[in-house]
């Protein structure tokens, strides 16, 4: 009998100053800059989302990272999936994860997701007004996996059947995904890491759906909310934001047919990108912990019939994506209610221990 699924939460490291953001957005800019200045754009719009017990933390502080892991562990989260920013050997927002690796703190499971988008002024990864661009090559594929293998060797790194789990956010951006994954697997074996488990994230871009195995990936990873499905039901008017009721969204997404390839399920406590996009933003409105808990319970039950081994994990978007209104971390409106809903929905046996 297979064990119940464990929860992994996507984790954003954009909560400390870096030279690039100082140059592009102003001295001292962090994700909190956009979050704190957000205002409602329609009656009843819940903004700004402001942190509660963890405060406006700085991820350069080990105490902040420890407090996050303690809170996650206490509410059933198995581990974090840290976003990893790699631009041809240049890493950005790297300090928190560097210190996690070097210090051994927090003692909490983790994996990595390569956020392989261009950085743009519009925050959407598209090709206009590019601040930091992605360029792909065989030489970079090799250099990249050699760096990653240092992280894969850490005893805290999350594995599936002994294989380090590594995600790619936009496989359609890779010129030849099969070539890249073949190189990564070859180098990992040569460096003594062994076999890899590669996940293709179902990001909200055309082409990021379907069986990922022909591209060299082992499984798809649900990245919620699934805007591509929602837009089919309610097309967005150009220049206007799309606002979808949370409970209706849950009904739509749990009714999607099961897939015939390995796919890790996912959930999200909400989504609202107005901190980044202002009045042109879009999102999911009227989220509640009860409805989020309903969705998560459905995904826990659905994992039992998922194509193996994808039923081992559920991915939550996100632990701390405050700039897009999707966070499990306590805020001033709901406190720990979303974390408590997470703990109630997840089997106790799946929780990680220090």
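^ Assign residues to that structure.
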């Amino acid at each position: 009998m297979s064990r119940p699924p464990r929860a992994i939460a996507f984790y954003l490291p954009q909560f400390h100053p870096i030279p690039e953001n100082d140059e592009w957005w102003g001295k001292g800019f962090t994700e909190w800059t956009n979050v704190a200045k957000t205002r409602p754009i329609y009656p009843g719009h819940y903004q700004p989302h402001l942190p509660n017990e963890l405060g406006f933390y700085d991820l350069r502080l080990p105490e902040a990272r420890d407090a996050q892991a303690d809170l996650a562990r206490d509410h059933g989260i198995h581990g974090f999936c840290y976003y990893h920013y790699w631009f041809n050997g240049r890493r950005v927002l790297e300090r928190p994860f560097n210190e996690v690796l070097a210090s051994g703190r927090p003692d909490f499971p983790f994996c990595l997701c390569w956020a392989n988008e261009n950085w743009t002024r519009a925050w959407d990864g598209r090709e206009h007004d590019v601040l930091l661009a992605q360029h792909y090559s065989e030489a970079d594929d090799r250099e990249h996996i050699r760096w990653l293998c240092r992280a894969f060797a850490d005893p805290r790194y999350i594995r599936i059947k002994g294989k380090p789990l590594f995600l790619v956010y936009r496989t359609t951006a890779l010129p030849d995904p099969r070539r890249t994954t073949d190189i990564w697997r070859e180098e990992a074996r040569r460096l003594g890491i062994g076999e890899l488990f590669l996940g293709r994230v179902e990001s909200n871009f055309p082409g990021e759906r379907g069986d990922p195995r022909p591209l060299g990936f082992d499984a798809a990873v649900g990245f919620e909310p699934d805007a591509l499905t929602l837009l089919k039901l309610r097309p967005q008017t150009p220049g206007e934001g799309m606002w979808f009721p949370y409970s209706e969204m849950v009904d739509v997404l749990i009714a999607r047919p099961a897939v015939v390839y390995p796919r890790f399920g996912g959930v999200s406590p909400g989504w609202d990108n107005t901190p980044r996009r202002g009045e042109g933003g879009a999102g999911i409105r009227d989220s509640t912990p009860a409805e989020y808990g309903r969705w998560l319970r459905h995904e826990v039950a659905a994992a039992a019939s998922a194509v193996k081994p994808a039923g081992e994990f559920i991915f939550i978007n996100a632990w701390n994506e405050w700039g897009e209104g999707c966070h499990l971390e306590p805020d001033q409106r709901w406190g720990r209610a979303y974390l408590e809903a997470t703990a109630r929905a997840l089997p106790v046996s799946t929780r990680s221990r220090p």
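The chain has a mean pLDDT of 93.
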